[in-house]
Amino acid sequence: MQDTDIHERVLTCRVVAMPENTNAAGDIFGGWLLSQVDLAGSTLAVKISSGRVATVAVNHFQFIKPVLVGDLVSCWAQLEHIGNTSIRIRIEVDAERMRSSHDKERVAEASFTYVALDAQGKPRPVLS
Ligand SMILES: CC(C)(COP(=O)(O)OP(=O)(O)OC[C@H]1O[C@@H](n2cnc3c(N)ncnc32)[C@H](O)[C@@H]1OP(=O)(O)O)[C@@H](O)C(=O)NCCC(=O)NCCS
User: Does ligand 1 come within 6 angstroms of the Cβ of 78?
Assistant: First the structure.
């Protein structure tokens, strides 16, 4: 990835929240959203590090508002920090309320750390 692009906030995941992703109350299950956010962050980490990564830490995760069935969920990822073998990504999640107002609302914010891995599954430098 070009140095000039590295700090850009990018849309890395857009998905419709489906009925099979609900919790017992009928809202979208937090674990489903967390997995979407992990995928969204890892997509940017893979791109920046030009290879495989593993999630090593969820530094922060805030559920701000519920996600509802039918919402169009968009995850925006942005580089926060590059270490030696690790890379920290901020993810912002918006939901468009497709079944009602069509308003877009911020529903979650998170920060995940990924480790760049070599072919043997060992940490490797992010930028080489
Ligand atoms: C990722 C993994 C290979 C790293 O191996 P490790 O021996 O812990 O590696 P290190 O201790 O050298 O740490 C590697 C980097 O991660 C960072 N790191 C480790 N634990 C961290 C944590 N809890 N929070 C933030 N960063 C962390 C280190 O600071 C280091 O960063 P740097 O090189 O930029 O300074 C290993 O922890 C692992 O396999 N974890 C499981 C990954 C996984 O299965 N993820 C999916 C979960 S479902």
Answer: no
For position 36, what pLDDT does the model report? 98
Q: Which of 56, 113, 117 to mutate to test the pocket of ligand 1 (most atoms within 8 A of CB)?
A: 56
Structural domain boundaries in the chain: 3-116
Instruction: Select the CATH number that applies to the domain covering 3-116 from these four: 3.40.50.300, 3.40.50.720, 3.10.129.10, 2.60.40.10.
Output: 3.10.129.10
The residues, ordered by sequence, that sit 6+ positions from 4 with a Cβ below 8 Å of its Cβ are none
Residue 82 has pLDDT above 80, yes or no: yes
pLDDT in tens, 49-72: 999 999 999 999 999 999 999 999
Tokens matching residue 90:
């901020």
Rounded to two decimals, what is the model's pTM? Answer: 0.95
